[in-house]
């Protein structure tokens, strides 16, 4: 029987926690990182005796944490499925906080396999931006056929949307909102009611008075999960900040296409940004200033920021290329790598488990032939919780090992 330990030996290790070893090792046991460190030049690695060891020779390769997509719709907007596989937006009511992405994510969507082949080991998945309040996101691993088993955190955030998308969807139906004023007013009304419900719940609400429609807001007001705000334009970003402050709520600024125009204000707000999809066309008015320079400007201002593909707007496998294009536009390369590993883990509130290679964290590892931000980069092996989820045909697996 194969050992529960997996050793990765000899590769260049980028921990994303500060340490970089030109030649190092990593040991994963029972799904968690047990130990890691540099290797002595010329000295053989002392594998334990008396057991059938699982070991990967990573000599000449790059070993880093599995990448993280901080905002996408894979499995909920399925590829090649049309209407039958599109469960992203419930466009009949602008306020639907009680919807759960968990009930619509199909891990059999081809995008999950594409993610694994790119070295992406986890993703934040949720409803789209047609509604002012769209429902809750789930944070999941990218390998497995049972969504409940691969879910790390659910609910993970509450989706709210500003600007063009809710306007277009409801103005066309002859319903409110037709203006940005109405979007803000309807969201305030919903938060006002939810806050009152939360206060009554804290005061000892009777079971018969509980309301399914507002129970979903409790984690938001308890500070356990943030609002996840769809915002492109600078004025929408500032409206989102204004409302979050009014109700004393945490929030992430998703897309943040004009964030570079108000970087100081975003820094002052204390809210993190999830920037993108910049690898897409400027298909509507509110993304006319979209550019790969945005995240670099925010990063230099001191804003914690991650990169998103917003799959399927840009394909999930383009995540590392988006980071590379951000480098080309001025973002420091190590910061770009953190923007697809460490920072999204922290922003999505799973930093205690993911985003860096450290003892005690999940054994989610990606092995590349070179830095993934380079166009020639290729994921050679993707490991989730110590199990090989994907391996390139040319990559030698440990003896007796099979992919998940």
List keywords for this structure.
alpha/beta; 6-stranded mixed β-sheet; 404 residues; 8-stranded mixed β-sheet; globular
Total number of β-strand segments? 18
Largest sheet: 8 strands, mixed
Mean pLDDT: 95
In DSSP terms (H or I, runs of 4 or more residues), the helix count works out at: 12
State the order of secondary-structure elements, H for helix, E for strand. Answer: EEEEEEEEHEEHEHHHHEHEHEHEHHHEEE
* Major beta sheet, strand line-up: 8-9-10-11-12-13-14-15
* Helix share, percent: 25-40%
Shape: globular
Roughly how many Å apart are the termini?
16 Å
Radius of gyration of CA atoms, rounded to a whole number? 22 Å
Q: From the helix content, strand content and strand pairing, which structural class follows?
A: alpha/beta
What this model shows, in words?
The protein is of the alpha/beta class. It has helices at residues 110-117, 147-150, 164-171, 180-202, 212-215, 218-221, 234-246, 263-269, 293-301, 319-328, 333-338, 342-347, and strands at residues 5-9, 12-14, 20-21, 24-29, 32-38, 54-57, 62-65, 67-72, 120-125, 133-141, 151-161, 227-231, 251-255, 273-275, 305-307, 365-368, 379-384, 387-391. The strands form three sheets. The protein has an eight-stranded mixed β-sheet with strand order 8-9-10-11-12-13-14-15. A six-stranded mixed β-sheet has the order 3-2-7-16-17-18, with no helix packed on it. A hairpin with a 7-residue loop joins strand 9 (120-125) and strand 10.
